[in-house]
């Protein structure tokens, strides 16, 4: 695994300081004057925590708008590495607790993934973890099962590569399945429970895949 450079950590810490400053400032200026009753201190802490995450979403999206994640192999000491590693720090230190929790309801998780840049069609929900929301594109009426994991990064020793994951409409990803970087899944396909879809796999429309590594179990029915 490639080490995160001190300069990249410094950029993240500056962004984190900005987030905290905005959150504390908003809490002090907007909420501190409200009549909050006997639980004033607890309420202000909870509001400040909420503000931290709201500003974190905003600052994260602005950062990625300025330095978008680059698909392909990430060269060391490049601006693409800066974007990738700051993205990793955001995930590890701020968003991991939201993405991997089992306490938030699935509809709220959908809103979080959208806020983090995932492209989700109408009526698409994930009870699993989308580890790289900006590089995850999912169509409509698709369900990601409980504890499934979808990620769009490849780490092989010191090599780092980013590859978007594309999933079509009305797809079912079973519980505890793993979908790796670069995978493309067609409409109406099914990935069975516990399957591991290795990187760059292409699953055709209507196909059923399962196993470790995942293999085609059933082909798409012939067109009428």
TrEMBL record:
Question: According to its UniProt record, which protein family does this protein belong to?
Answer: Belongs to the transferase hexapeptide repeat family.
Which CDD domains does this chain map to?
Answer: LbH_MAT_like
Stretches that traverse the bilayer: 44-70, 82-99
One Pfam family, short name: Hexapep
* Superkingdom of this protein's organism: Bacteria
This protein's UniProt keywords:
Acyltransferase, Membrane, Transferase, Transmembrane, Transmembrane helix
Specify whether Heme is a keyword of the entry: no
Protein name, as recorded: Acyltransferase
InterPro entries recorded? Hexapep, Trans_hexapeptide_repeat, Trimer_LpxA-like_sf
One MF term from GO for this chain? acyltransferase activity
Q: Does the keyword Acyltransferase apply?
A: yes
Q: Which organism is it from?
A: Duganella lactea
């Amino acid at each position: 695994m490639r080490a995160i450079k001190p300069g990249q950590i410094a950029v993240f810490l500056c962004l984190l300081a900005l987030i905290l400053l905005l959150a504390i400032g908003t809490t002090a200026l907007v909420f501190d004057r409200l009549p909050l009753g006997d639980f004033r201190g607890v309420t202000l802490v909870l509001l400040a925590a909420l503000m931290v995450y709201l500003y974190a979403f905003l600052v994260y999206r602005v950062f990625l708008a300025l330095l978008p994640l680059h698909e392909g192999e990430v060269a060391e000491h490049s601006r693409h590495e800066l974007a990738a590693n700051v993205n990793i720090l955001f995930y590890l230190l701020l968003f991991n607790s939201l993405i991997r929790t089992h306490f938030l309801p699935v509809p709220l998780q959908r809103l979080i993934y959208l806020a983090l840049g995932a492209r989700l069609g109408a009526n698409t929900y994930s009870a699993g973890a989308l580890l790289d929301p900006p590089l995850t594109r999912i169509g409509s009426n698709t369900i990601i099962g409980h504890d499934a994991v979808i990620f769009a990064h490849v780490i092989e020793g010191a090599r780092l590569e980013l590859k978007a994951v594309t999933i079509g409409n009305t797809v079912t990803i079973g519980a505890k399945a793993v979908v790796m970087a670069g995978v493309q899944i067609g409409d109406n396909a099914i990935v069975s429970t516990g399957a591991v879809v290795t990187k760059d796999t292409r699953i055709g429309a209507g196909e059923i895949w399962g196993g470790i590594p995942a293999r085609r179990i059933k082909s798409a029915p012939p067109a009428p």
